Amino acid sequence: MNSNALSLSARRIGAMALRHFYLLRSSWPRLLEIVYWPAVQMTMWGFLQLGVSKQPGALAVAASTFLAAFLLWDILFRGQLGFSMSFLEEMWSRNLPNLMISPLRPHEFVLALILMGTVRMAIGLVPVTILAIVFFGFNFWSLGIALAAFFANLLFTSWAVGMFCSGLVLRNGLGAEGLTWSLMFILLPLTCVYYPVATLPGWLQPIAWALPPTAVFEGMRALVLEHTFRSDLMLWSLALNAVWLSVAAIAFTALLNSARRVGSLIQVGE
Amino acid sequence: MNIAARTGPVVEAERLTKHYGATVAVDGISFALAEGSVTGLLGGNGAGKTTTIGMMIGLVAPTSGWIKVFGADMAKEPYKVLHRINLESPYVDLPHRLTVRQNLLVFAMLYNVGDAVQRIDRLAADLALAEFLDRPAGKLSAGQKTRVALAKALINEPEILILDEPTASLDPDTADWVRGHLERYRERRGATLLLASHNMNEVERLCDRVIMMKQGRIVDDDTPAGLLARYGRETLEEVFLDVARNRRQPAENEQEAAS
Fold first, then answer.
1. Strand order in the sheet with B38-42
2. Shortest Cα distance from B21 to chain A (angstroms)?
3. How far apart are CA B244 and CA B177, in angstroms?
């Protein structure tokens, strides 16, 4: 690959960010959609936590992690969805060929999607964390420095999954769009969002530990229940994320090259 | 206007081939486009025009052979030259919710246009976009969309402009006006134009060369006047039909002329 292909332009990335800023600014249904579902979910988990925590015994202790678990899961899910939705907007508007024949490099495109995905995720989650304080007295931000570690690791995973899903759509057209909405959910039971890894059968636990978010959710439980910040878990998650991001970048590049071979880029659609 | 090509080739294709599975979309074609030339790429549906254009702009990878633009192999190093090319096609679109001005600003930034605001103002004046510059692109008429797509294609003042059916949805008056604009742009910029069109009047007016494709192959390549003379026809539409329907070969015509 020559140096031209690897160059990085803040202006081109800024152009893509500006394009999505204009889009979000012009479309209140899009903004509402970003906030609506996290708010509904948070309300449901909040009441569940409230109800169960009044019961005696271990269940009440476990329930005290529900809201934190939900909000962290939503960082993961919304991060990926924000990335994928920003990509899908180009497919839906049939604008992708215009971008692909412009000087915008694929890695710049991915960086712009990461930027916009993070912005979309923040638009969805920040109001919801405020609602959690107001309605349930749960201050997500009180997790402090640990939150930054959780947040970063979950975002890295969301970008890796988002990159892979976008590559699939790039290669296979909008027929693969459904995967961008559903692929992340395979991680929901395996990453042990609402229960400890020890709950899983023995043969499934190594698989769970190979998924970067698992360490984050275990770390969150250690923090909430034992008031211990497990830096070892965060480092393990970070190392796994480095592998996942590398694999996702390779997969995205391979799927893009495959799209050029099969002509998907000039037949944007299903 | 038939201005002669100025210098050497800016586009070169050699044994360019593209297979989609068992389907041969482009079958070993070779051609070169001279700088400053206007070439019409003609052929029926499925002739291989879109795939050829796709390979020329790096959207499609050849199965074999190569195509170079300004010396850069488009399958290997497209980013060396993509800033010098642009495309207008009815098969791609601009984001509907963005206004025309916003869309053009985004593409000006993508192409690193230094004086983006001035460039947009000038394009708006040249292409009569001013009255709907702040309207969402999705709320334009077909004719207005075509002019906006042309403005996007001209945002970087490309040295090679590829036009796929540039006047397909325009009324005759606007289509004529767009053709005039393209002629002036080519004259001012010295740009090379490749035009895929089914409008034979348009091809006759704009092009100084016509490449005719059929079933992935180049079946003829000449000036419009040369094609008319060799096929013994008065219009390019008749030549197109002769080629598409295998009705008449130039050789027969030459034999008739000789006898």
1. B85-88, B160-164, B192-196, B38-42, B209-214, B217-222
2. 8
3. 30
Count of A–B CB contacts within 8 Å? 113
The answer to whether the CB atoms of A263 and B80 lie below 8 A apart is: no
**Chain B residues closer than 8 Å to A4 by CB:** 77, 79-80
The DSSP line for B100-126 is HHHHHHHHHHHTT-TTHHHHHHHHHHH
- Least Cα separation, residue A270 to chain B (angstroms): 14
Q: What is the pLDDT of residues A101-140, one digit of tens each?
A: 999 999 999 999 999 989 988 888 888 889 889 988 888 8
Determine contact, residues A94/A268, Cβ cutoff 8 Å. yes
* Phi, psi dihedral angles at B138 (to 5 degrees): -75, -10
In this structure, what CATH number is given to the domain that contains residue B85?
Answer: 3.40.50.300
Answer whether A133 touches B (CB < 8 Å): no
Q: Could you tell me the end-to-end alpha-carbon distance of chain A, in angstroms, rounded to an integer?
A: 31
Q: For B163, which DSSP code?
A: E
- Coil vs helix vs strand at B28: strand
Number of domains, chain B: 1
| Rounded Cα distance, B211 and A245, in Å | 46
Longest dimension (CA), chain B: 64
Q: What residue has token string 């009180």?
A: A142
Residue from the list A27, A94, A266 with its beta carbon closest to the beta carbon of B59 = A266
Residues 129-168 of B with CB under 8 A from A: 136, 152
Instruction: Note whether A102 contacts B82, CB cutoff 8 Å.
Output: yes
Q: Which residues span the domain enclosing B15?
A: 9-89+158-222
Judge whether B252 lies within some domain. no
What's the pLDDT tens digit per position in B179-219? 898 999 999 999 999 999 888 888 988 999 999 999 999 99
B211 by DSSP, 3-state: which? strand
State residue A224 phi and psi, 5-degree precision: -75, -45
Average pLDDT for chain A: 90
| Of the partner residues B57, B94, B136, the one whose CB lies closest to the CB of residue A95 | B94
Lookup result for tokens 């439980």: A221
At A101, which amino acid appears?
A: I
CA-angle at B206, arms to B203 and B211, nearest 5°:
50
ipTM: 0.89
- Residue A204 CB burial class (10 angstroms; 0-12, 13-18, ≥19): middle
